[in-house]
Amino acid sequence: MKTLLWFEILGVIILMALGATLFNYGVLIGVLALVFVLAMAGARFVMSAKKARIELGLAGVFEVCQVLWLIGNTGTLWALSRVVLVVYLLYLFYRKAVEVHRGARLRGLGVVSLALLLVVSAGASYLTYATVNPSIIARTMMGENSFESIKTRAVDFDSAKYTSHFDVEYAEDYPNSYLDIVTLNDGKPHPTYFYVHGGGFTAGDKMVGDPNTKAQDDYMAYFFTDMLEQGYNVVSINYALAPEYIYPVATRQADQAVRFLQENGDRYGISMDDVVFAGGSAGGYIAAGFVTAQLDPAYAESIGVAPAMSKDQIKAMVLESPALNPAQSGKTQAPSVLADYIFQTILGSYLDTTSVSPDKTVMDRSNLIAKVNAAFPPTFLSDGNNATFPDQSIDYQKALESYGIKSEVYIPNREEVGAKGHGYMVNLQDPTSKVFLDKRREFLSSLG
After folding, report:
1. How far is Cα 100 from Cα 104, in angstroms, rounded to an integer?
2. Which tens digit of pLDDT belongs to each residue from 6-64?
3. In a domain, 145, yes or no
4. For residue range 234-273, what is the model confidence (pLDDT) as tens digits?
5. Are residues 101 and 167 in the same domain?
6. Are 227 and 282 found together in one domain?
7. pTM for the structure as a whole
8. What are the DSSP calls for 184-211, one per residue?
9. The total number of structural domains that make up the chain
10. Is 336 helix (H, G, I), strand (E, B) or coil?
11. 257 and 235 in contact (C-beta within 8 Å)?
12. What element of type H or E holds 119?
């Protein structure tokens, strides 16, 4: 009986932890939980039905909630089943505490074991809560939101060739509404490269880039200089960070930045009549979302913006490791359990939904792959081949090709260059980063 209780407590803790982290195996873990709790309740019933009434009752409620979740697949039902499981676990701890109190000979060892299990169960309960409310994890990654300009590492562009305008305020409705502009000094008209930084929607900066990459070089300045040398003026924007500001605020801010430049472009030497929209990771989603809103009126209305640009003004898109279908972003290719957890948690926080069984309406509305139409511009995409989502770039390209739209996707060949992760292109010491830059240059040059 005592061994069974220890086994039961440990089993429930493990099931809670697995269910709150291995999102892609939810159904399997759900079925295992059903079988385990039913088996434990059955064993209790055989031993003493009278003494196990409370446990049997809790087990029965859990079984019903779990079956309803497996059928309905909603975050609310999953959360309800977890609440019952936590209550079930607390009752088991109560039983064990009573047992330890009565067993004087093993009391010391029992108390220590019980304390350790309590700590572990608290961790499992926290992970469970974070699954229902992923913003509590995302807040630990969140950068600063401020209505004042946030000073970051200085970036120097050759003043003999380029003119720089840093921390230009483009709107006042949301924090971090600042952009940087770097233009060529030759006095000629140039197309504009409009860039949105990455950082999991929770961090990052318009000139520093994505802090999660841990890149040792000023890769953003290098990337932008490469575009300047190709004859583009460069704009890079900041935006409000999640989970304090959620979807679709960042896309609305991209819209505000574009409108600001349309009204004030002459002042800064910027033209918004021939623009390449680009972004990395989360920024790729925001840039693609803005373009989608220009070319899909229904989507624009759903996120609260009106189209600001015509099809002819959008020259192309360049999307680096973009998350384009949030429902798939927690299912990395060459999968990584940790990457799956991080991506799913971040996307759940940004979209204000649960990590397990996210709201289907939210997922459908935020899926940009499904919104591609014949008006979309030529697009160059790239992603790594390990613990990231190259399948989304490939699916996006297929959607573009179905309308005859010029597109290219570059995924480094794992057999030739080894494993390349999410945002691989920021590592300037890696030869595949140069391949990416060369392919980007060739693609844009082919557009004239």
Report:
1. 7
2. 788 888 889 888 988 888 888 899 899 989 988 888 887 776 656 678 888 888 888 89
3. no
4. 999 999 999 999 999 999 999 999 999 999 999 999 999 9
5. no
6. yes
7. 0.91
8. ETT-----EEEEE--STTTS-BTTTB-G
9. 2
10. coil
11. yes
12. helix 107-132
Residue 80's pLDDT is: 87
pLDDT of 105 higher than 50? no
DSSP category for residue 150: P
- For residue 133, the number of C-alpha atoms closer than 13 Å in the C-beta half-sphere is 6
> In terms of domains, do 389 and 250 share one?
yes
> Could you tell me if 188 and 275 lie in one domain?
yes
For residues 318 and 174, membership in a common domain is answered with yes
Return d(Cα 36, Cα 370) in angstroms, integer. Answer: 40
Per-residue pLDDT of 283-311, as tens digits, reads 999 999 999 999 999 999 999 999 999 99
What count of residues does the chain have?
448
Is residue 204 a contact partner of residue 196, using CB atoms and an 8 Å limit? Answer: no
CATH number (domain holding residue 295): 3.40.50.1820
Q: What domain range includes position 90?
A: 2-132
Omega within 30 of 0 (cis) for the link into 189: no
- Burial class of residue 108 in the structure, from the number of CB atoms within 10 Å of its CB (0-12 exposed, 13-18 middle, 19+ buried): exposed
φ, ψ for residue 120, nearest 5 deg: -65, -40
CA 228 to chain CA centroid, nearest Å: 30
Q: Cα separation of 193 and 76, whole Å? A: 43
